[in-house]
Amino acid sequence: LAGHFAAEAVIRHQQAHQLSELTEVVLRRSEFAVDFAAASLDELAKRNLASCEPAALQAIRLHVYQRSAIKDVRLVNPDGSVICSAYSETLEFDKGWVNRRDMLPSRDKALSLFRVEQFGGDALGVLRDINGSSALVAIVGINASLFDIMPAELRAHSEVILALSSGEKLGEFQTDAGKSLLEPISFDRTSTRFPLHATIGLEHAVLSSWNHEAYWPALAVALGLGAIFGILLARSRRMEGPVADLDRALAAGEFKPYYQPIFDLRTGQIKGCEILVRWLRRDGSVVPPMNFIPLAESSGRIQAMTWQILGSALAELKPLLRANKNFKMSLNVVPGHLLSAGFVETLRRKVLTARVSARQIVVEITERDELDDLARAAAVVAELRDHGFRVAIDDVGVGHSGLSRLKGLGADMIKIDKFFVDTITVDASTTTIVEMLVALARDLHMGVVAEGIETEEQLRALLASGVAEGQGYLVAPPLPFARFSELVESRRAAQSGAAVSNDAALVA
Length: 508
Ligand SMILES: Nc1nc2c(ncn2[C@@H]2O[C@@H]3COP(=O)(O)O[C@H]4[C@@H](O)[C@H](n5cnc6c(=O)[nH]c(N)nc65)O[C@@H]4COP(=O)(O)O[C@H]3[C@H]2O)c(=O)[nH]1
Prior knowledge:
Its main location: membrane. The chain is α/β, with parallel strands linked by helices. The chain is 42% helix and 23% strand.
């Protein structure tokens, strides 16, 4: 009996997980549609086509014609009223047209979304301001392909809905339109970037009848259903694009740590390293982090990715970390991950399991996204430090890290952004800022690491400003493990061999 219940729980869990993944797919596809529309509008604006001149309208028509997802493009007033439309001849374009006040802004406020009744159905309007006196709108057709992701077996008993966050429906897939679902259970996802909301609804009975089938050879059926869902999911996701690529890469372990040495600016000695992720694709190409971190973050994959590279880095660096207790390894963690439930516990467990000392691990908080909840962040920082971890604030000077935040967070270290290192030799005010940061860090008992040091001249200027440690191409770019450990080894041999005489020349 226990086996039966366990198997049933597995089925439910898998089904719930996969249905919620499918909901995510619907949302991602619609986000792509909005991104696509916004990119089209940008291109038109860049080509100076935000105009009602006949030649401009002609060019816009061609543009629309080449993009089947976009049904029309319009030039509108700041209040949203239409000035002209690429296909105005045939359309009564102000029917059901929405006032600017009723449009919903994207999170970054760069776009406004609204529902348009057109083309015998609903469509999505995407507005982008061009200048103070006009804006461009793309009308995006909500294509049925957005919805044909449901496993065939479930279609007759399910519905897929895409809506604005105001609740207005943009599109709906249902085999038997108008028929409402019996005892529906639903899976919901809301976009973090756009006012969009996807829902998959399903009759409870569909799942329970499956469970009923599962009653007898419960475990086998549980696995079978998992496989069916898995295959269907794989099929729908193959068409799904970048997020699916991330998932595949995660499953295949394609995210790998590269290591950039952090060195003593005076002696050149390697004191530790920063782990920087690289995506090593099957075709041998190496994708830099800025090409996938933002997507990993917005699609909620960053956490799995971070744990994956931490796991590899701990395994690779363990001998070095255990042989040299002063060697430190820095890991980048985004604020959302830092503040998520169980972060400190999971980190501790992983580091403990690898039998590495927490004192050797530096959590670098990347501050491109604002740490909204400073008090909570400070509490997590305190908890990390209680367990022996070190905490560094990344991108200081360019991120959101105002000086009061630096103080409030209670970190051990600040990292001075490459921007200041680049300008320190050419701009006297940069020197002043760096000196101020160093003084502030000293007052707050924090260490300072400079990023992106490329020349001897920069190194000398940083030393003169009181910075003691840094990283940069001057010593090495981020390296795969084998090359990194060769470098550490050769430096160590060189340093224990020859007595150090000329301080400044050593790092070259
Ligand atoms: N031009 C120049 N560049 C230098 C030099 N020295 C270091 N860099 C680059 O500067 C970046 C420093 O990392 P960051 O500020 O943490 O900025 C990182 C970090 O914010 C993010 N990132 C990288 N790996 C991870 C990760 O595992 N997790 C998270 N959340 N973010 C990561 O992506 C950013 C970019 O990473 P990378 O492309 O590896 O870029 C790295 C590094 O390769 C130099 O002398 N000259």
